[in-house]
């Protein structure tokens, strides 16, 4: 009758043997090394292949010029608020208006000019800021001053 092996021995045989760390590291780096080894070969092959000849009499097709994207509304408002803060020394309260023009943007920025107690009596001002397409300041002016608590009576 064959002798039955103790439990520990059976367990050891069933488990796959772990590879040493050096061996694992090397095998993980192999694909990267293979790729690096192939790159010079591919580059050499491309350099050796002649380019297809082009008819020199035909003008080269014009590539569309990549125009820098125009300033989007959110960025225009941020830029205007930044300019107003830099010029007045006061933090902007909010954006009151935003309009796209031919040359850029016209933005209304609200600023607290004087803090009072209660807050409803704070003195606010609205600045109209004009920016070009790249977000640079073209002009700014204070268009209105009013108390925070007053009702709007614009028509």
Q: Would you kindly provide a written description of the structure presented here, covering whatever features stand out?
A:
About 35% of the residues lie in helices and about 25% in strands. It contains 3 helices and 4 strands. A 4-stranded antiparallel β-sheet has the order 1-2-3-4, with helices on one face. The longest helix is centred in the first third of the chain and has 28 residues. It is flat, with a radius of gyration of 36 Å. It starts with 6 loop residues before the first helix and ends in an 8-residue tail after the last strand.
Write the layout of secondary structure elements.
Layout: H1 7-14, H2 21-48, H3 73-88, E1 92-100, E2 104-114, E3 123-132, E4 137-147
Antiparallel strand pairs: 1-2, 2-3, 3-4
Give a brief description.
With 155 residues, the chain is of the alpha+beta class.
Radius of gyration of CA atoms, rounded to a whole number: 36 Å
Task: Summarize the biggest pleated sheet.
Answer: 4 strands, antiparallel
Would you tell me the structural class of the helices and strands? alpha+beta
Strand segment tally: 4
The overall pLDDT, averaged over residues, is 77
Terminal CA distance: 108 Å
Question: Count of DSSP helices?
Answer: 3
Low-pLDDT stretches: none
Work out the helicity level.
Answer: 25-40%
Strand order of the largest sheet: 1-2-3-4
Strand content: 25-35%
Give me the strand/helix succession: HHHEEEE
Give the tags.
155 residues
């Amino acid at each position: 009758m064959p002798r039955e092996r103790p439990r520990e021995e059976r367990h050891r045989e069933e488990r796959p043997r772990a590879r040493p760390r050096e061996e694992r590291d090397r095998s993980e780096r192999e694909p990267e090394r293979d790729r690096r080894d192939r790159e010079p070969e591919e580059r050499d092959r491309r350099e050796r292949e002649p380019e297809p000849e082009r008819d020199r009499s035909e003008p080269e097709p014009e590539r569309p010029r990549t125009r820098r994207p125009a300033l989007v509304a959110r960025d225009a408002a941020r830029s205007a608020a930044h300019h107003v803060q830099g010029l007045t020394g006061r933090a902007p309260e909010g954006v009151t208006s935003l309009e796209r023009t031919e040359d850029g943007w016209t933005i209304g920025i609200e600023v607290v000019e004087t803090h009072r107690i209660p807050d409803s009596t704070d003195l606010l001002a609205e600045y109209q800021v004009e920016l070009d397409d790249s977000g640079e300041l073209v002009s700014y002016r204070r268009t209105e001053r009013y108390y925070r608590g007053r009702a709007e009576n614009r028509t």
